[in-house]
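dumping this here so i dont lose it
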């Protein structure tokens, strides 16, 4: 995987994180109130400025009512 493919993969994950949060009816502030991440950290992850670790992804998936596999883009 070259860097371009890596960035596209990262972008797809962040898109799905935003979509899942919105589908769950949650704001960044509401997620921050759970204590998983601060609002600033959520914003940075959703804007692609920070990577998400797997444990945090699992916690957010659970909060958003999604299986963690939802966030993994399919292989081409």
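and the seq i came up w/
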């Amino acid at each position: 995987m070259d860097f371009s493919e890596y960035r596209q993969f990262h972008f797809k994950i962040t898109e799905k994180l935003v979509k899942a949060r919105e589908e769950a009816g949650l704001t960044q502030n509401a997620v921050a109130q759970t204590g998983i991440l601060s609002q600033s950290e959520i914003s940075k992850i959703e804007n692609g400025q920070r990577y998400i670790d797997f444990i945090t992804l699992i916690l957010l998936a659970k909060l958003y009512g999604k299986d963690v596999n939802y966030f993994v883009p399919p292989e081409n």
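The first helix runs from residue 3 to 23.
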